[in-house]
Amino acid sequence: MDTQPEWRTLAAEKRQAILDAIPQQWRIDAPIPPAEELRDVTGSNYIHQFLTPREIEITETDALGITEQTTSGNWTAVEVAEAFCHRAALAHQLVACLHEIFFDAAIEDAKRLDAYYAKHRKPVGPLHGLPVSLKDQFHVKGVETTMGYVGWMGTFQGRRDDLRRGEFESELVRELRALGAVLYCKTSVPVTLMAGETANHIIQYTWNPKNRHLSCGGSSGGEGALIALKGSPGGFGTDIGGSIRIPAAFNFLYGLRPSSGRIPYQGAANSMDGQNTILSVIGPLAPTARSVKLLFKAVLSQRPWYHDPLAVELPWRDDIEQETRALIEESKSDPTKLSFAIMYHNGLTRPHPPVARGLRMVERTLERLGHKANADLQQSKAFTADGGEDARIHFGLSGEVPEWPLLIGREDQKKNALEIAALNVKKREYQKLYMEYWNSTAELTGTGRPVDGLICAVAPSAAVTPGGFNDVGFTSFVNVLDYTSVVIPVTYADKTVDVAPSNNEFFGEVDRRTQAGYDAEIYDGAPVAVQLVGRRFQEEKMLVLAEHIGAEIRNG
Amino acid sequence: MDTQPEWRTLAAEKRQAILDAIPQQWRIDAPIPPAEELRDVTGSNYIHQFLTPREIEITETDALGITEQTTSGNWTAVEVAEAFCHRAALAHQLVACLHEIFFDAAIEDAKRLDAYYAKHRKPVGPLHGLPVSLKDQFHVKGVETTMGYVGWMGTFQGRRDDLRRGEFESELVRELRALGAVLYCKTSVPVTLMAGETANHIIQYTWNPKNRHLSCGGSSGGEGALIALKGSPGGFGTDIGGSIRIPAAFNFLYGLRPSSGRIPYQGAANSMDGQNTILSVIGPLAPTARSVKLLFKAVLSQRPWYHDPLAVELPWRDDIEQETRALIEESKSDPTKLSFAIMYHNGLTRPHPPVARGLRMVERTLERLGHKANADLQQSKAFTADGGEDARIHFGLSGEVPEWPLLIGREDQKKNALEIAALNVKKREYQKLYMEYWNSTAELTGTGRPVDGLICAVAPSAAVTPGGFNDVGFTSFVNVLDYTSVVIPVTYADKTVDVAPSNNEFFGEVDRRTQAGYDAEIYDGAPVAVQLVGRRFQEEKMLVLAEHIGAEIRNG
């Protein structure tokens, strides 16, 4: 007799349905080696055995490289879609990174794109034939959005009789289709979205494919894991406290958290929708900076401000891109043309040895290039104003009981209108303070301008052990400021060099616990990244600088 | 024995102090004729008697015209400042429109500007030597900000020991000084700012100088009255539900309510600060469209986004200005190049006869030009979420009891975090609906584009009888949408043509009461204006179109 609660049964059924959506020929029959035997499943050491050379060629080309082939008719949309569907299916079997699989619809869409190209001899748009993965917050016709809630199964955002169920598409989805993208899967999230790891009762736990002892990060964790396994050339996540940047960093990817209002959030599911002290934003993740830029710029070309009331009328600004490229060029003869601040810690926590080494590598790179460096930061938070009510409502739909640490509110943290207004004022005051601090660096840089960017860690650790993520302090200050941040992958944790310091001085208890959590053996091989933070709406400049710095780190 | 409460005494003392700040030679000694004898005190029929021909010449030049003289050294900043100080002093004695007078500081500033010009042979900035008036929400060094609260006297926003008292300046004030503007007075507001008339215990009631039976409007009412009397060539008000547009319309002025994020609100006093469902915005008022544009564009040149965290990085976009001018040019040979919607009522209230006639005049003008026309609207509100607590706190400082209708919340309207979030979602849904409606007009206009603008009333009445303003429905929908709106003055109420219709059909009780409130005799001579509403961030386009339409109305 089955004594488990119904929501567990429902979750297991959905879990099985996801696996059942994988075509028989793409299933991995042989047992998958445990993490103890094979940490990294991303490359030739393992996943390649299931793929044809052609599939490897396609899936190991970056998004920009793919669109060069598909928009010129060299590669068909169908062969590209099939290759990524196959690799995504493998990825899911390895690390449980998918919530929805709709490969058949993708192939049909790809066929239509190929037919269009055959007839018109030109692509539908700049993303013609490019597979794009989506975090399970975006509504796509014909498939569910559960966002990890068992209670959302068979509903539209928890409402069973909502006519939009299975029909409605989010604005970003509409725009991606108009750009020629092929949609084929939706990726895993932590239930409530308020966590830096990815776990829910449906997919259970999404592991880090580069080191399967560790988490893929969150909340856009499925995106991070899938793209790291090259089951997707790029995709879209969301970020309210670090949810794009943490998985980007944990999976050795570039990831952009734009300022709010650039990528349309209209029609996407969300937690605590309407909370507008700190807005969640959408941004792309991909293995290369140029691919992140491609996705971002392509969406802007759709003029989202005519379709999303919260989007700002800011097209991609070529002049800023060109100015930034000119600065980089000039800096080759006069390195003081660019200057960066580096923040080694946030006054509360010091990063683990691999992350600290990553920061030093970036600093050395900038020093080699002659760009200057400084230091600072602070933080804040505001996701608990509803006292956790939004999450309680949606858990209540199924009765499920969350089993993972979530950054949601407690009853006693509930706020009223006047208290929320006070929080908004406090946030604005913090923003103003930080703005003036940034302005003041003009007196230090020698460029005549304030620093061009701030380099800092994304998290204290290089990926994280399960249950170990509890510090968004390195990312959430960017959300409070609504600044631009681009994650730049740097290196990998290496147990032979990243030894814990004998030093026993700590900022405090959080720092002590963080340092105690470092285990050189377990973290070995985990990705290390930094974020390049720019001011509000500086996406054009930061993407160009991130590409420059990323390339120079590899040259270094 | 004085039995009145202390706050009444304090208010009377402050009222007297404002009058005492007027130099003896500028005081009006002869009795001022009552409204029954002389409605309109704005022109040669009355105010000119107190001014020299040179003062009349200066004060009856618009802001752009003044800067042409001051930035080229033809007029000194001192003579311009003195002329406006004099006329502002007269204006205040006629209609009680000033909260703060600091003429001495203005003359000192003007002397410094003249010295700068003499030394460098160039102006400090585009507003060199231009007097600019400010609503009493802006902090200016050396003077108080009471915002009409007796309890704010001698404090900084109600805090007695705040070191910013008398020292701090709002960001806009800093930018205006950097542009070369001369600051000399702050204008009256309704206490709490939440009213469409201007009354508080300090200045008591600000009358409409064009028709002293009527209100000057609110909440930027002092601005409207002062500029109508040409005691200022232009100034800045704020608008959360119509507070720039209502006084602009009631005083026959152009007024711009920009989308939020263009003019910096940083460091200005406000009601319900931190309420961010609907943001109050700052915008200019002036007698000519080109002067409104001058003030708006000048502020943007200061790059407020580096000084106000809520400001958006959108400089004045010359390309949009040029495109709009090109559209207007093209429309001369092909009138269908531009199209406008006209809304005669909002489904709840029908405007009074003078306002309806104004709308017909605009429609005839557009028809004459060949530009098309349509219709629509809705509304909403969200200023009551704090249950009136913010106002109660500030009234509580002095114990004063408000005696005018205020649009503030009742205790039972207080909302919590989840309810505010739901309100934010509802607002966004309304915005999206309206956006799609606007998009859909592309199928009707014949231009291949949606309508270029929507023409509608600003209020049901042409100015308003005291205590009669209770309907922000014509303006507040623009705040909910965060759209751009420019008020265009059209004509004046005329008792010989604006007769009440015999028709007795009403939309409902509000409409019936509004229609019953019309009195052709009392309203005779009151200004009539319309607003030209454009989409979010379309300030460049709307300012150019407003200038075009305004000029054509005069030509018509």
Automatic annotation (TrEMBL), chains A, B:
It catalyses: a monocarboxylic acid amide + H2O = a monocarboxylate + NH4(+). Substrate binds at L193, S219, I240, G241, G242, S243. It is an enzyme of class 3 (hydrolase). Residues 79-373, 425-543 form the Amidase domain. InterPro entries: Amidase_CS, Amidase_dom, AS_sf. Signal peptide: none annotated. Its EC number is 3.5.1.4. It comes from the Eukaryota. Keywords: Hydrolase. The active site is at K135 (charge relay system), S219 (charge relay system), S243 (acyl-ester intermediate). GO terms for molecular function: amidase activity. Belongs to the amidase family. PANTHER family: AMIDASE (PTHR46072:SF7), AMIDASE-RELATED-RELATED (PTHR46072). This is amidase. It comes from Monascus purpureus.
